[in-house]
Predict the structure.
Amino acid sequence: MRPTAHQRIALTACLDDHRALYNAALEERREAYRRSKVSIRYGDQSAQLKEIRADDPDQARWSFSSQQATLRRLDKAFRAFFGRVKAGRTPGFPRLKGRGWFDTVEWPKDGDGCRWNSQPEHPSATFVRLQGAGHVRVHRHRPVRGRVKTISVKREGSRWFVVLSCDDVPAEILPATGAVVGVDMGVASFLTTSDGEQVGNPRHLAASAGKPATAQRDLARKKRGSTRRRKAVARVAALHGKVRRQRLDGAHKAANALIRDYDMIVHEDLRITNMTKSPAPKPDGEGGFLPNRAAAKAGLNKSILDAGWGVFLTVLAHKAESAGRELIAVNPAGTSRTCARCGHCAKDDRLTQASFVCTACGHAAHADVNAAVNILRAGLALRQAAQAA
């Protein structure tokens, strides 16, 4: 988005007022349950919006539908919380949103408080109309396909973006190639295919680690609430935003290459959250703790997250669906220690990070290529079992 100075002020006020609504609704739920053991639902709070808008002119200037979407966002947070409780995971109760933790407002229907491409007769520019902010100019980096369903405005540092979700988007089915591939994810190499191709790990965060670290130290010296601190926060956010965009760009390029060349892609069903957990402390029985290699694990966790496996797999799934490709996720357990030729599985078969030599049949290969072949074989077995059923 390319808002004017007055529109920036209006968009910032829109975020602040929706954040205030979110926090007030959260506090109402907490107090009602604490005092009376009463659970308040989305329908109860949505019914109060008319009174809130009548009493508060700041809230009345924004779209009614966008405020309903904010209340639904809170309701979704509570449903996710109770879902985690039932599943036995760490709950994480919904929290009040600070100034830097609420950066998105959604309009759930195009034409209700918002309008995409509100001036289609303009010869060269695109505009989105937002209630309370007016016609905001947009730099449209690619054509919008399908029918615009929802419109969201997102703030990232000092930049503003409009995010569209569309229905009836035509699929771009690619011609069949007849090829299948297994993909092994790693840290030394970002991905390795069963055909022997490797994509290097760019390590975007590590490559630019000096600048974010310097900016973070500079931020730590600033007084809270000061103008200099706000500028330092924006600087840190801009640097991490650049790394995030680089990582996303690399994920799109790697996914495009696989989608273009293969009809079926088999990858590991990675549990990244579990893989990046910190090791549990080990009490020594005397009030202290035994060494648990937490520092080494922290470095590995940072490398895993920097590689961006989760981003890549999400992008790959979206592109595969659009292109009509088949995507299969398999359990990665044992794939890196199993011989792709004879099936012998032993820890000693993998001598180093890159070398695999089977102690049973003598088969030697790159360890990641060997794992990718096993992943492909497991995916073919799953597909065959599904077809037989």
